[in-house]
Amino acid sequence: MSGLPLSVRDLHKTYAGAEHPVFDGFSLEVDAGTLCAVVGASGVGKTTLLNCVAGLDRWESGSIRAGEHEVPAGQPEAAALYRRANVGLAFQHPHLLAEFTVEENLLMPCRIAGDLRPEHRAWAGRLLEKVGLGGLGARLPGTLSGGQAARVGLVRALVRRPGLWLLDEPTGNLDPATAQEVFHFLLELHAEVRPTTLLVTHNPALAGRCGRIVRLGPQES
Q1: What is the distance between the alpha carbons of residues 70 and 86, in angstroms, rounded to a whole number?
Q2: pTM exceeding the 0.85 threshold for the entire prediction
Q3: Domain-embedded: residue 123
Q4: Could you tell me if 53 and 71 are in contact, meaning their C-beta atoms sit under 8 angstroms apart?
Q5: Could you tell me the pLDDT band of residue 1, with boundaries at 50, 70 and 90?
Q6: How far apart are CA 145 and CA 169, in angstroms?
Q7: What CATH number is given to the structural domain containing 80?
Q8: Least confident of 72-76, 109-113, 141-145, 216-220
Q9: Cα separation of 48 and 58, whole Å?
């Protein structure tokens, strides 16, 4: 699957008990295949935006569409099917399953979806080669460095070739040099697969290397 155009229209979202809404009529259009950095101060809704686009969070009104797919709000089963078909998620902590090998971790989304095929295994191996981890598929996560584990997290989110690649501070817990190294591989993966990507980051240098920057907060753009 190639990247899906993303459309967020008139989004209204308030957490229970909060004094102010997170989004009050927020709209965003992202062209298919764009690498888009999402920046802003803590608490302005960066992760909330990713969670809404992924169908992990609900909102009061407005709509989110990924290509022809409208993201289900408040429908857990429909949202899970939507994610399975369209979304790859990676986080600051990759949360690799310690008892499974790197390859088994990569193929877990396919196994959960019930459609693990030989081509998935071959694709996972190619992605590992792409991020400099070829030959490490039989290793356990506990033997990896932080930068290696972060790269495995990025690759796992691409194994099913999603139309949306949603990345929440994937280099946030790494030292600056390792973060730069992981971001280099992130750029290479994006160029290879061309998903529509939202990257939440507090690092202005990394954001500046993306094709587009969306700043959340008083000056939303």
Answers
A1: 11
A2: yes
A3: no
A4: yes
A5: low
A6: 17
A7: 3.40.50.300
A8: 216-220
A9: 9
Domain assignment present for 134: no
Rounded to an integer, what distance in angstroms lies between the CA atom of residue 27 and that of residue 64? 9
- Total domains in the chain come to 1
The whole domain housing 26 covers: 6-93+145-215
* Residues sharing a CB contact under 8 Å with residue 217, sequence separation 6 or more, in sequence order: 40, 41, 44
Residue 124 lies in a domain: no
**Total Cβ atoms within 10 A of residue 26:** 20
pLDDT by residue (tens digit) across 9-62? 999 999 988 888 999 999 999 999 999 999 999 889 999 999 999 999 999 999
The values of phi and psi at residue 122, to 5°, are -65, -40
219, with CB counted inside 10 A (0-12, 13-18, 19+), is: exposed
Q: Is residue 34 part of a domain?
A: yes
CA distance 191 to 204: 21
Query: CB-based contacts of 151: which residues, under 8 Å, 6+ apart?
Result: 131, 132, 133, 182, 185
In terms of pLDDT, which residue wins out, 94 or 2?
94
